[in-house]
């Protein structure tokens, strides 16, 4: 049944309200019999529709978008910046309510509503939502409970406005080249170089999100490491041997599956050492998908990366690629922010027509649709009800997220070097703390534990007198803590660090651990805090003052220190 124009208007302005849904872990009926009955009642067009994650443009619903959803019955809708930029959480709630109502009115099956909310560089939701950091701090913490808690916090915020799927976390392995080059597709998006840590963290985050009724999509199998090619632009080739792949890239995804991953995104990545068909991306490859199904025993939902990306369209038409993906074993084809309606419709028609023509058996469609419906049923998403937009901010508990972030930074802040056992600092220590004046929370928090320390602030680009004042404070102290950010780029800050006596100075980086390679290697100590966020500043003060233990480990090797290195100590307070 098509939704009436008058009802659409009411939905857009947010006047149609209903009771809030049951808690995500309280499912009325997630039985296989319910899914079987639902599948049996669906038309072929509806089942094919379940296999597509579609995208739309703009912050205002249009009647063309309504018609598209009610004609093609997509199983998922993904929102990007074009849908949410400049909007507020309550508006996003109304926006999602509207499109879910379209879907339910059309065929009774709610859509997954998805977003890319990885944290750090890739996050679509800003105003009113927590600023989750680059995921490398999770690799430094390397703790299941911490990762679970971050997944839970992310999902709580997403579910508060109606999202039921997060296209995260990233399980591609870290490379130095990715982290240092801002033009690389994986720049600042990876957890660790250790496949075991990546798999554990990704699986724990997936479980944490699931606890709040949000499905995590672990991506981008089989992994970008190591390739410099951006699959948004062209096919990315990953030239490693099979054993290296199995021991590293594949292992990360396998462990994530073992730890609870329910959906995996397959990238447009070509592995010549494994793929027998030249230049065939994993997203269209029975071989690469077979490794997940057979070797990793994954029976969850497999989805492609965006079908309009260069890794596909430089070789195939989108409709042909959609048919190939289904034949290869993909359950859901995704579209990104640049996808045209005509291409999305053509892909959906191509799969439908291939089934009608006998080129794809309907049993393959049933298999994929059953996996998707089963996942929706498992998380109570088949029982969708409109969220009350006026209660959005009551549901959006950013306080919980803040505490989860502080705990994560406490666990991940890494003491890399401490030649003279200066840490943790004690209240009676004669210590100078030199910090960016633009981050006053450092003074506020550290002075709670170290009230007798001598504090010296400096500008983002330190003036000559600030360097002199810092030197004077350092000369009068027995221990010096200097806190800076990105000294490899901010050379004046690097010069300030270099002006301090190295034999009694501990350098703290509010950026990536590679900052260590931009300072004098004879400096007495080095601590990596991984972020300039307030939560990282709070955790840093607590770690160096011994209010909490030092537990962090390097998620990548740096000059003189291997992957996994980290000095530890117990709390002294």
Describe the structure.
This protein is 42% helix and 13% strand. By secondary structure, it is an alpha/beta fold. It has 2 domains: 5-396, TIM Barrel (Alpha-Beta Barrel); 413-544, 3-Layer(aba) Sandwich (Rossmann fold), CATH 3.40.50. Strand 16, helix 22 and strand 17 form a beta-alpha-beta unit. The N and C termini lie far apart (65 Å). The model is unreliable at 1-26 (pLDDT under 50).
Task: Write the topology of this structure.
Blueprint: H1 5-12, H2 32-41, H3 44-50, E1 52-55, H4 63-72, E2 76-79, H5 81-84, H6 89-107, E3 112-115, E4 117-119, E5 122-123, H7 136-141, H8 144-161, E6 165-166, H9 176-180, H10 195-210, E7 215-221, E8 236-237, H11 242-247, H12 249-258, E9 263-266, E10 269-270, H13 286-295, E11 301-306, H14 310-313, H15 318-328, E12 332-334, H16 341-356, H17 362-378, H18 392-395, H19 398-412, E13 414-418, E14 431-436, H20 440-449, E15 454-458, H21 464-476, E16 479-484, H22 491-498, E17 505-509, E18 525-528, H23 534-544
Parallel strand pairs: 1-2, 1-12, 2-3, 3-6, 6-7, 7-9, 8-10, 9-11, 11-12, 14-15, 14-16, 16-17, 17-18
Antiparallel strand pairs: 4-5, 13-18
């Amino acid at each position: 049944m098509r939704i009436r124009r008058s009802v659409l208007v009411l939905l857009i302005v947010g006047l149609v309200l209903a009771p809030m849904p049951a808690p995500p872990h309280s499912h009325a009926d997630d039985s296989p019999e319910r899914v079987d009955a639902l599948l049996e009642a669906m038309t072929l067009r509806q089942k094919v529709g379940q296999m597509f994650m579609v995208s739309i443009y703009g912050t205002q619903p249009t009647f063309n978008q309504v018609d598209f959803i009610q004609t093609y019955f997509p199983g998922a809708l993904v929102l990007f910046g074009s849908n949410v930029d400049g909007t507020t959480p309550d508006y996003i709630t109304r926006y999602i309510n509207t499109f879910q109502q379209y879907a339910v009115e059309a065929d009774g099956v709610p859509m997954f509503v998805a977003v890319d909310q990885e944290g750090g560089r890739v996050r679509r939701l800003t105003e009113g939502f927590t600023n989750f950091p680059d995921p490398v701090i999770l690799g430094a913490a390397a703790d299941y409970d911490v990762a679970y808690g971050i997944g839970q916090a992310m999902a709580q915020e997403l579910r508060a406005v109606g999202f039921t799927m997060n296209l995260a976390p990233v399980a591609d392995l870290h490379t130095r080249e990715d982290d240092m080059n801002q033009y690389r597709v994986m720049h600042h998006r990876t957890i660790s170089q250790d496949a075991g840590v990546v798999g554990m963290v990704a699986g724990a985050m997936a479980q944490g999100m699931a606890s709040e009724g949000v499905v995590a999509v672990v991506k981008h199998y089989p992994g970008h490491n190591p390739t410099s090619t951006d699959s948004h632009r062209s096919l990315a080739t990953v030239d490693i041997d099979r054993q290296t792949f199995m021991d590293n890239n594949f292992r990360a995804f396998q462990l994530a599956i073992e730890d609870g991953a329910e959906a995996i995104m397959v990238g447009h990545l070509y592995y010549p050492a494994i793929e027998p068909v030249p230049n065939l991306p994993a997203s269209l490859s029975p071989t690469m998908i077979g490794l997940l199904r057979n070797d990793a025993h994954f029976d969850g939902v497999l989805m492609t990366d965006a079908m309009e990306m260069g890794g596909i369209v430089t070789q195939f038409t989108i409709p042909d690629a959609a048919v190939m993906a289904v034949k290869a074993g993909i359950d859901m084809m995704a579209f990104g922010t640049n996808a045209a309606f005509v291409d999305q419709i053509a892909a959906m028609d191509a799969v439908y027509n291939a089934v009608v023509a006998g080129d794809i058996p309907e049993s393959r469609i049933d298999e994929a649709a059953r996996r998707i419906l089963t996942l929706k049923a498992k998380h109570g998403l088949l029982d969708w009800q409109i969220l009350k937009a006026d209660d959005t901010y009551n549901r959006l508990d950013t306080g919980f997220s803040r505490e989860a972030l502080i705990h994560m930074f406490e666990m991940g802040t890494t003491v890399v070097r401490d030649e003279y056992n200066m840490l943790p600092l004690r209240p009676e220590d004669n210590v100078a703390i030199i910090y960016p004046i633009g981050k006053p929370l450092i003074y506020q928090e550290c002075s709670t534990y170290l009230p007798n320390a001598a504090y010296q602030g400096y500008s983002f680009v330190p003036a000559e007198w600030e360097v002199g004042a810092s030197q004077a404070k350092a000369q009068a102290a027995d221990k010096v803590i200097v806190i800076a950010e990105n000294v490899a780029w901010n050379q004046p800050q690097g010069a300030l660090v270099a002006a301090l006596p190295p034999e009694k100075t501990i350098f703290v980086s509010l950026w990536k651990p590679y900052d260590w390679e931009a300072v004098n290697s004879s400096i007495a100590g080095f601590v990596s805090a991984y972020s300039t966020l307030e939560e990282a500043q709070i955790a840093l003060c607590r770690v160096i003052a011994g209010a909490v233990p030092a537990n962090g480990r390097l998620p990548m090797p740096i000059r003189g220190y291997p992957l996994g290195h980290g000095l530890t100590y117990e709390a002294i307070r």
